[in-house]
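user: can you give me the structure for this one chain? C-alpha cells are fine.
assistant: on it. calling the predictor now.
[tool input]
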Amino acid sequence: MEKIVGWLLSDKTQCPSDNDNKFLVLPIVGMGGVGKTTLAQLVYNDVKFKKHFHLKAWVCVSEDFDVVRLTKEILESITRSSPPPNSLDLLQVKLQEALREKRFLLVLDDMWNENYERWDAFSTAFAFGTPGSKILVTTWNKGDASIVRTVPNDHCLKVLLDEACFALLRRHAFMEENTSNINKKMELFGQEIVKKCKGLPLAVKTLASLLRDKRESNQWKAILENEIQDLRE
C-alpha cells in the first residue's frame, strides 16, 4: 500500500514509450482472491489524496469491456449527475470537459480486455487531464496488464505467508472463545487450512466463515474434508 501511495503522490509524469502522455497506468496483478481489489480500496480511500487529486473515480470493469458503459460510469462518478444518452462521441466530449485541467485518480477494477483498440478508444479522454493523473488497474491477466501499462513493471501481489494466513484465520474463525480452545484448534487444523488455501486470503476468509460457529473439533474436521471441493471452485 505504501509503495503504491508513494507512486501516486510522486511527480513522475512521463512514461518511457510516450513523453507526451499526461497520465500513467499501474496494473496491480495477481491470482483471484489474493487481495487486488482490497489493496486498491485501501489506496483509493487514503486521506493523503484529498488535496492531491482534483477528481477520483472507481469503476468495476469485469468481463464486459463496454467502452460506452465504462465512459458513462466514470462520467457519472465524477460529475455526480446522470450522463447524456449512449452516444460514445457525446460521452467522450463530456468526459474530456470534466477532466480538462484536472489531476485525477481512476481505478479500473477487475479488468478483462486484451483488445488494444478498445482500450485506445476508451482512454482517449484521459489525455485531457493534467500531468500527474494516475490510473490503477486490477487484473489477474498479465496480457491485459501489458496493454494498459505505462510504467516499466506491474505491481505483482504474491500469496500470503503462513504466519499471515494464521493471523487471518484467527480473526475470522473465532469470536469469543478462550485462548486455550483457539490454540488447540490452530494446532490441530491450522497447518491443514493453510495448505488447502494456498496462501490466498479470500480462501482463508471463506473457509474461516464456514468454521466460525463450529465449536467441536470433529465439526472442523468434517468441514475441512467435505467443503474443500466448493472452496476450490
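assistant: here you go. The longest helix spans residues 179-197. The two ends are 29 Å apart (CA to CA).
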